[in-house]
Design brief:
The complex is a heterodimer. By secondary structure, chain A is mainly α. Chain A is built from 22 helices and four strands. Chain A starts with a helix and ends with a helix. Chain B is α+β, with helices and mostly antiparallel strands. The radius of gyration of chain B is 28 Å and the shape is elongated. The chains are: A mainly alpha, B alpha+beta. Chains A and B meet through helix 5, helix 11, helix 12, helix 13 and helix 14 of A and helix 1, helix 2 and helix 3 of B.
Chain lengths: 637, 338
């Protein structure tokens, strides 16, 4: 006891460097072994796990995409029947959106935001652990159901009445709805952590105008998550209620409304696209600056564009419903608002090109992906303007034109920057560089494969080919382009294969990276690669938006934190002046137990409404265990 | 980089050319007034956007590969150049706003152009069902109305008002060569006006995912001259052909009435009055059976009746066991329903 009290009084000012780091290591470390792995709350370990899991889902979703292309390569394909095909395309969409794209962006934030703002752990670290376990459980539920031929088959959008009790018997639609709950709980948790981390845990001196653009992007994204996700949770819960206990939210025969579903779904569904896209543009801004060897042009307009995109995201959900017969005036409003999103997107493109123009581009793999992004995303953005026009949309809505459009936006607009970001931050994650040679191969294969696969789909759509068809008839002239797209998909898949090979090989035997291999300006490069458990031996103090360029030697540091218990600096929201020392919780196994109890309840509730009653008891018990004081020095602070 | 842009520039018109010919279900092969306006809008917007894309690409390529002056440190910026860039970015942003404003206005006028509905238009109620279309010609005189399925005939040169209703799940009515799509939503009635200037057949297909056989939910819109249309409508109004003197056909009718078929299908002039399947009164007068799946022929009808679940897996027509003789008679009867 006396020992604990004595230990809890050591400040970092009293220690010399080697002693300081060894003591911080002792305080912040994650124990070796399975128990340590299951109970860790280190944002870097959880972030890495999150990213890896999301990429595994990308791989699985990619396999489904290849099956789709195989089936559609020729007319009246007999490879996959309609029942399995509907599961496959639903799984492909749901998996890519809910288990890959959103989680991977959030996961990059989980790993990078605390490092970029110069703190030692994310806010609410145990919630962070809980979030990962929920995400993993949701993914497992979805994929195990699919393996058991119980995968959802109503599309990732699950329109009623097709997904309702009358037309979707069995449990497939319920599994879709409950998978939503899992992933939304996970995403909301991360969003809250990131908002608090960015607002309250920034390094002293990192005022609002010095926040790295990726961090700004994650902040805006987190707010969009917090405001958009409740709509889908209301929708999916109402759907489960319709299916399980016979409510009639969506049943027109009993006064319900089928369009209500579409409004709720797209009020979430459109911002969802920006939840994926905004982090990606944050990555682009980061990469453009580093590889142009100058600060990004137009920091302020870029921040305003991010915020503007986040706000506009909520004003254009109706453009997914242009063919449902809405009033003319409403259509015009949503045409204008949907097109208006081109303005913030345009500002960003112009600022990046201006940065490259005035900079000195260094053609490393991350920059290649940024260039690929600009080429591709501008096409996707322009086709987005096209589908924002109501009359234009009536010809292309629900056709392969839209399939092409959103793959241009999601792969070109989000996955290209993400791959660039992986090449860029991989040295920080692992301490090793990825291969420049394989990187170039991966880029060119993915870039050409992507365009050859998806560009023809614009034309297929205009030629009348609807989406979500498991086959098409030989008398329709779609065979040639479909075959071409399917063959090109092999090139695209080969590119991803090279990328995965590069990741695995570089993780094992890549060249050692050093702290700052790209000579980048932001704080995550001010510590070793990979960073120690405590991130920074001393908290950096920031006096510009590009601290490592401003002070190429050693950064100023703040001290006065305890080293023998987990502490972070809390700073003010606008100017980031130090306010307090706040303790940060130790590793803890209870988030895992809570996630397991919650998962059991959610899965059980697919089968019986009583699960909500009885299933909440174990959740309550695990939460009590979670919050019960553990007698650690952090509790006493 | 450069090579890629080259191919894209050559590739677009080439692909458009390849795809554009001889397609009776294509937004690019516009034959109806509304589809033609839409095609003009599509061409306008695509052309402007292509130019924008090329300009952005030129700017980016120049930014990447332009000649540089001496090396400078990352933070060593030149204020006048930064200011000038600020102006350029602002001007580009302003132009973006102007262009999207132009697109919005163009869209508004196109929509106004194609929403022409008159009270005296021919009115047809279209019902979407898993996975076929019910077609009901409405007439102020109820006895002049009639019901058909999966094939819509319209007179040329006249606006035709379609009332769209989803009878089970959501479907979407789309004949790209004539007009943009409109959804059929349970609990609502949507409207769309189509018009064809020249006689011809235009294929359409359900465009909203509606379950297992969404891929095989086609239909045909046939535009006839007003005279042909009147002749056709007169024939459709009549009850089913009665070829009582042909033994095989009579036997087939007998099988149809005895078996469960009559529980789901209607054949006017007989005791078959089911409504959950397509009306078969003039089945053999339509070009296709099973919602655009097979061209109508006696062989196709026999194959369909013999095994509907293999031809269109998951559809709602059950397999009704028939002896070979019964099947032969049945196909003769169905093929006689001109």
């Amino acid at each position: 006891m006396t020992d604990t009290i004595r230990r809890a009084q050591i400040l970092d000012t009293e220690l010399k460097r080697p002693e300081l780091t060894s003591q911080l290591e002792e305080t912040w470390k994650t124990e070796r072994g399975l128990w340590g792995a299951l109970s860790t709350v280190d944002h870097k370990i959880i972030g890495r796990r999150y990213i890896t899991t999301a990429f595994v889902f990308l791989l699985l979703g990619g396999v489904l995409a290849m099956l789709i292309r195989l089936q559609l390569a020729g007319p009246e394909g007999r490879l996959i029947g309609p029942d399995r095909y509907n599961q496959i395309f639903t799984m492909h969409g749901a998996n890519m959106m809910f288990l890959f794209a959103v989680p991977v962006m959030e996961a990059m934030g989980v790993y990078l935001v605390p490092l970029m703002v110069g703190t030692r752990n994310i806010a609410f670290p145990r919630l962070n652990a809980f979030s990962y376990w929920m995400f993993l459980a949701g993914g497992l539920v979805l994929w195990i159901s699919f393996a058991l031929d119980m995968g959802p088959d109503v599309g990732w959008f699950a329109y009623v009445p097709l997904s309702g009790p009358q037309y979707a018997p069995g449990k497939r639609a319920d599994i879709w709805a409950q998978m939503i709950t899992f992933t939304e709980v996970a995403a909301l948790a991360v969003a809250v952590e990131i908002v608090v981390t960015v607002f309250k845990q920034r390094a002293p001196g990192m005022s609002l105008d010095r926040i790295p653009l990726f961090v700004w992007a994650m902040l805006v994204t987190s707010f969009v998550v917090i405001m958009a996700m409740p709509a889908i949770m209301v929708a999916s819960t109402s759907l489960i209620l319709d299916r399980l206990v016979g409510t009639h939210f969506f049943n027109p025969a009993e006064g319900g409304d089928v369009l209500l579903w579409q409004h709720l779904f797209w009020f979430f569904g459109h911002p969802e696209v920006y939840i994926i896209f905004i982090p990606a543009v944050g990555m682009v801004s980061t990469l453009v600056a580093t590889f142009s060897r100058r600060p990004v042009f137009g920091y302020l307009p870029l921040v305003v564009a991010l915020i503007g995109t986040g706000i506009l995201a909520f004003g254009l959900w109706v453009h997914h419903m242009f063919t449902t017969g809405l009033p003319r005036l409403g259509e015009s409003f949503f045409t204008a608002s949907s097109m208006a999103i081109a303005i913030p997107s345009g500002v960003q493109i112009f600022c990046w090109i201006a940065t490259l123009w005035e900079g000195r581009p260094v053609f490393k793999t991350p920059l290649l992906f940024v260039i690929g992004f600009i080429v591709t995303f501008v096409i996707g953005g322009l086709t987005g303007v096209m589908v924002a026009s109501v009359p234009f949309d009536t010809q292309v809505h629900d056709t392969y034109f839209v399939v092409a459009h959103f793959h241009y936006v999601l792969i070109g607009g989000a996955v290209f920057p993400l791959l660039g970001a992986v090449y860029y931050w991989f040295p920080k994650f692992t301490g090793r560089m990825m291969s420049e040679r394989l990187g170039r191969w991966a880029f060119w294969l993915i870039f050409t494969g992507f365009h050859a696969t998806f560009f023809p789909m614009h034309i297929l759509g205009l030629e009348g080919m609807p989406r979500r068809v498991y086959t098409y008839q030989p008398d329709l002239p779609w065979h040639g382009l479909n075959l071409f797209a399917s063959a090109s998909a092999i090139i695209l898949a080969a590119g991803f294969f090279v990328f995965f090979i590069d990741v695995v090989m570089s993780a094992r035997s890549g060249n050692p990276a050093g702290d700052n291999p790209w000579d980048a300006p932001t704080l995550e490069w001010a510590t070793s690669s990979p960073p120690p458990a405590y991130n920074f031996a001393q908290i950096p103090v920031v006096s510009s938006a590009n601290p490592l360029w401003e002070q190429p030697g050693a950064l100023n540091v703040a001290n006065g934190l305890h080293t023998d218990r987990r502490e972070v600096v809390v700073t003010t929201i606008t100017t980031a002046e130090p306010q307090a020392r706040e303790s940060s919780p130790q590793n803890c196994i209870w988030p895992l137990w809570t996630a397991i109890a919650t998962s059991v309840m959610l899965v059980w509730s697919i089968f019986s409404p009583w699960a909500v009653v009885w299933g909440s008891i174990p959740i309550a018990i695990t939460l009590i265990g979670w919050f019960w004081p553990k007698g650690t020095p952090e509790d006493e602070a | 980089m450069k090579r890629r842009i080259g191919t894209a520039r050559l590739g677009l018109p080439l692909l458009l050319l390849l795809g554009g010919c001889d397609n009776w279900q294509s937004a690019l092969e516009a034959r109806g007034a509304s589809a033609i306006s839409l095609k003009h809008l599509i061409i306008l917007i695509v052309a402007v956007c292509s130019v924008i894309w090329m300009l952005v690409m030129i700017a980016m390529i120049h930014a990447l590969w332009r000649r540089r002056t001496a090396w400078r440190a990352p933070l060593d910026l030149v204020p006048p150049r930064e200011r000038r860039l600020g102006w350029i970015v602002s001007i580009c942003t302003g132009l973006t706003a102007v262009i999207i404003l132009g697109f919005t206005v163009a869209s508004f006028f196109t929509t106004r152009d194609i929403s022409v509905a008159g009270q005296d238009d021919l009115t047809i109620r279209i019902g979407g069902l898993q996975w076929w279309w019910s077609v009901e010609y409405l007439d102020p005189d109820p006895s002049a109305g009639f019901v058909s399925a999966n094939e819509i005939h319209i007179p040329t040169g006249r606006n035709v008002r379609l009332l769209l209703q989803g009878d089970d799940v959501i479907h979407s009515f789309w004949v790209p060569s004539l007009a943009g799509k409109q959804d059929l939503i349970p609990g609502r009635t949507n409207e769309i006006t189509i018009r064809a200037e020249r006689p011809g057949a235009y294929r359409g297909q359900c465009a909203e995912f509606c379950g297992l056989q969404h891929a095989h939910m086609g239909f045909l819109v046939t535009a006839d001259t007003p005279e042909d249309f009147a002749r056709w409508a007169r024939a459709q109004r009549a009850p089913a052909a009665n070829s009582a003197d042909d033994e095989e056909i009579a036997a087939g009718r007998d099988v149809f009435m005895r078996k469960p078929c009559a529980g789901c299908h209607s054949i006017r002039g007989t005791q078959a009055t089911g409504t959950s399947g397509p009306d078969l009164t003039h089945l053999a007068s339509r070009a296709f059976i099973a919602a655009g799946l097979l061209p109508t022929s006696r062989g196709a009808l026999a194959a369909w009746v013999a095994d509907p679940q293999t031809l269109k897996p998951g559809n709602n027509m059950p397999l009704v066991p028939l002896t070979p003789d019964e099947l032969r008679a049945m196909s003769a009867y169905l093929a006689s329903l001109k």
